[in-house]
Fold:
Amino acid sequence: MREFYGVALATPLMLGTAQYPAPSVLEAAFRQSQASVATVSLRREAGAGQAFWDIIRGLGVHVLPNTAGCHSAREAITTARMAREVFETNWIKLEVIGHADTLQPDPFGLLAATEALAADGFEVFPYTTEDQVLAGRLLDAGARVLMPWGAPIGSGLGLNNRYGLRTLRAAFPDVPMVIDAGLGLPSHAADAMELGFDAVLLNTAVAQAGDPVAMARAFAMAAQAGALAHAADPMEPREMAAPSTPVLGQAWL
Amino acid sequence: MLAPRCEGAVADPAIVRHGQAAAGHWAEVTRVVQRGSLVVALPRDRAELARFARRTSGHTAVPDVSALEPDLTGPHRALFMADEAHLDPREALGDLVRALAARGVTVTRDTVTPDAVLGPVIDARGMAAGLAGLRGVRGEMLVLRARDIRLSRPVRLLHPRHPLYVVPRADGVFMLGATQIESADWRGISARAVLELLGAAYALDPRFAEAEVLETGADLRPAFADNVPRVVVRGRVLHLNGLFRHGYLMAPALALQAVAYLTNGIKGDLVHAD
Structure:
């Protein structure tokens, strides 16, 4: 697996920490899934009081604060700076939301914020679309990791544009990339990993499942299966049928 | 609200189990309205309603919402939980104090910590008790008066982002709740919460736009990691705490288990003794 700002992750699963029925369920989901990264929102959670932050720290995984809910570069930059102080990490998952309904990233605000934060010593994980031009500009601005979306946040639609994501993966073969947002089923996670992405990040699909703990485990297994399959160099689809057992010389009765 | 079945969509099964008896216990001391609760979703969010139905029990599908609540005329899809109930929390608390007084219990208002009291102490101070493992979960609510809207039972609006419940009280007053944020932020209600709660209420019935805002509220719900209340025994002090969003729903069960422990040493499932 490619490294994230010098950090090699033990597993390709990153989990969000919002929307669980209770913190005890969140803890169990993390344990079962062996997720290696927890994302946490500064604006809505853990902003005041130590209790929830202590729970997150107690998970024993890497913490990736995010700027969820920020609608401008300025807001995101301020939130990132506060997150750095609270969580004592240079990692920041940068979200600059451009559209209230689809929650799709604002590419212009995202680029501006990436530039400012990278210059300020942050290790930026920009939440972006599969747009290859934007990806190149984000890398030029100082990002060393990309987080393209699968589909709109919380939609559970899976990989909405497989062609675009495959092209993006091929265009920047050395850049660590995480499919972030839109995954609804473990098969979506396997799909992303089979395409050669380095990790998947999800929240709603696990937190709002009827049994979040079982679903977390299912996602972990799927992500690992997809990673294993990608490393095993899968066959290419072909149109001609090719029997796995030769038919020539078989008895003709 | 005394809505254990609705809470069961996300809460621990212990809440549903113990909550069933709450309406009966409260009816011994205060006015409990037994008219069920209604769970509605806008057509776009029908998947939310299907999921809610799968995760709860004791409901029936409502083909025509206006047959139950004539004021709800929108294209809502709905579930009806017939055996749920609601009460007015402030009225209930006053009635409870009066019922205690009638049994010879003296109520004293003072500032005191358990150390300063002799004998067995029941400490139900919520966040102020400072118990280990207790965290604050922020909740925000609004109280409105809309005299032209009539609802006879609590209505929950399911929404992927802004779920809402509306509880009717007397005199055209409605309680709108509630946000649930993992934060111990103790400030007043946020502009965002006001916008979200009112926006959701407007989606339910546009006449809420003309309502008079009587009150806003923001406070912390004390909760343990599993969001299930506990009787925590620390020597002669019994801490009744962690009622989270289930104060009126779980108070009877918690009180009964505290009494059983104090009088007979019985350790119910909510009792955590050393």
The interface with chain B takes residues 18, 21-25, 27, 44-52, 55, 154, 210 of chain A (CB under 8 Å).
